[in-house]
Amino acid sequence: MNRLAALISCWVVVLAPFVGGRARAEGEPALTPPVAETSTDVPYPDGATGEAVVDLELIVDADGTVSAAAVLDGREPFAGAAARAARQWRFSPARRADSPVAAKIRARVEFHQPPLPETPPEPPAPPTATPMPPPVPAAEAPIEVTVRGARREIGQTTLSAADVRAMPGAFGDPFRAVEALPGVTPVVSGFPFFYIRGAPPNDNGYLLDGIRVPLLFHVGIGEGVVHPGLVDRVDFYPGAPPAAYGGFVGAVIAGQTREPSALPHGQASVRLFDAGGLYETPFAGDRGSVLVAGRYGYPGPILSALMSTVKLNYWDYQARATWRLGAQQTIGLFAFGSHDVLATTGQTNDPSRPEQSVEQIGSDFHRLDLRYDRGLAGGHLRIGATLGYDVQGGAGGNDGTPPATITDRSAALRFELEQRLSSMARLRGGLEARVDRYGFEQGTLLPNQAGAVQPPIPASIDPPPTNLTGAVHLDVVWRPMPRLELVPGLRAALFESSRAGGQIRTTVPALDPRFSARVTLAPGLATISTFGISHQYPALRAGPVPGLVLSAPGFPLGVTHLQRSVQASQGVEVALPADFTLTASGFASWWSGLTDLTSLCIQVMPPTMPPPASPNATPPQIPYVCPDDQPVSGHAFGLELLVRRPLSRRLAGWLSYTLSWSTREAHFPTVDGGTAAATVSSPFDRTHLLNAILAYDVGAGWHAGGRFVFYSGAPYSELAGNVPVPPYNGHRGPSFFRVDVRLEKRWSLGRDRSIAFILEGLNVTLSQEVNPMASDCIGDMTAQGTTTQCTQGRIGPLTIPSVGVEAFF
């Protein structure tokens, strides 16, 4: 009979937020260690022989799940089997008073070889385990407890998939939940393009497992491009991220996928606008694991009912295979990709085709990542190689603008190392190399543009660049004393862009120092400081495609400077009663050489134009002016507040508020075809930004929640025709608010199996938004001098109703 035991040792380490390493302070509530709630059976590995003992170190999160299982001692194949099984265990979490806290515990798994069956053979008994005993009372065997600070990055906000699954308006997607954080202003409510602490969307970085991707969200509906069942957490760095993150002068949003599971499991969902699924299973005696996932969107019927001129579809896929080479070595292959198309139907100038569907946004990307992971004594090593292919494009408009497409064929190599140097210091370092080869294609004119003159390829992108980027980064997490943590770091990078087969080459080095500090002033009270300098390629605008600004990174001809930001913040973190936490931060950012692609390109009538040769002659092309292709400088500063109680609690609350100002030296087109410079509020400077969330677990499988979103109006300029006039950005549009709701009923179907009915709605108030990137125009801009009169346009109401069913098995 196969006998084994998983025993909690009498060494328990509790991770209490914001508290430096120390013994329990006098007067603090006693700690209750975690207790196993599920079976701790570990099957005897196939092909193994003999007896074995494996010691594990587990991190049990505050929700009772095991987020990490490290082998302290034990031989293969027993060590791997025990670690994989332990990740599926569930506990009643450790508690200090009545508050659940994360805990680090040690567990021992004993393997005993099953005896040969008797004659006559009897049916084999299922594997059994000696259950984890409850904590021994202190009077009999005292438990040694060491309280430590929660191990997360200074200045980082982490959104776990489990914590945000029930957030109203997020549709169960941890990437969508980023919008509810302080400092995050959507360009359009519900769309996943953000100004973050004043930085425009093209300056924010998106990564998945350290792999760069052009976006983490689908266009329109805003779902993440990775199935939420594969996402473990999302790390958000609004400014001055660690040295490992570089090449962006704005924020960094980094998704991390889950570790391979030791047990088969799956998810499936069907909603009004999409369907998706995920399945993962181990194989070859748990040495390998395979996962497949994907989602297909069909929001057309809903959009047609709400906005008849808009068409949208999207899909994504993920596939992962891992193989354990030894006790501490794993090789893996991860492939994923995404597709989006957003089209609009509008009037044309062709009597035979009065309406035509025009693809405004087309976006595809694909990644293939090969990685090698090795556990070290007190550390971890990863080597990864990635191939990528990206396509961004959009069709032309009825004004003579032709279709345009940018492609990027990329290859990247990364080396990442983390190593504990001593009980007080941990070293993190790495190398990166990346090559991007960009291409640009300008298509033919639309059928209704017959006779129009094909405009030349934009000079800014002709010829397209090839970029070679290399970087080395290093930082040290140093704790010279229990209540002080310092993280000095440095990133050295080389940005090289070449054109015309290397005949034109620009190379610029950059040094990015980073520093952060956490000082614990008292139990549950800490100050947080961050500072960093970052550099990024300039953005090359590829043309004013309506509804989409195509761009590629690279140096404009004759330019040898990078975009540069200096970011600093000072904050305080406070542990409040009833498991609430408060974070308050003041921030300041300064930019130079900034290229903001949200600025609009407009057609400006030249002072004089020759009359047409005949009444039927095609009017000459009227040039676009894109003023902020010129680099600008600017700054932003503000105050951010976040009060939250985990959404996994029965009664959960979340309140985020931002008070901020963002200005820059911008350029505006003038009626004579020139430009004028002025220091103004940035295009999406919204002084007040508020998110309030309340969710409640009613019981009997019912869960309900609501979310209120508010932000003040964006600045704008009055227009003469379609040309802005002073005072530039001297006026404010109306404020915007919306309400999101979510209702769930879940039925349990046994261990780890459930099915749920979910009703969710984004913007159930059907609120419209006045947006500085939209305009309503009357008339035509023609060679005869007719002036188009434009005013700020309204968007929406952008609302997303969702009725769906999801299952876990």
Outline the structure in words.
The protein is an all-beta fold and 809 residues long. It contains three helices and 50 strands. It has three domains: 3-117 and 124-148, 2-Layer Sandwich (TolA/TonB C-terminal domain); 157-237, no CATH class; 252-450 and 457-541 and 559-612 and 622-808, TonB-dependent receptor, beta-barrel domain (Maltoporin, Chain A), CATH 2.40.170. Helix content is 2%, strand content 55%. The strands form ten sheets. It has a 22-stranded antiparallel beta barrel.
Quick check: average pLDDT? 80
CATH class of the largest domain: Mainly Beta
Shape: globular
> What share of the residues does DSSP label as strand, in percent?
over 45%
List unreliable stretches of 5+ residues.
Answer: 1-27, 116-123, 125-150, 448-453, 616-621, 781-785
What class, by secondary structure content? mainly beta
Task: Summarize, please.
The chain has 809 residues and is mostly beta strands. It folds into three domains: 3-117 and 124-148, 2-Layer Sandwich (TolA/TonB C-terminal domain); 157-237, no CATH class; 252-450 and 457-541 and 559-612 and 622-808, TonB-dependent receptor, beta-barrel domain (Maltoporin, Chain A, Beta Barrel).
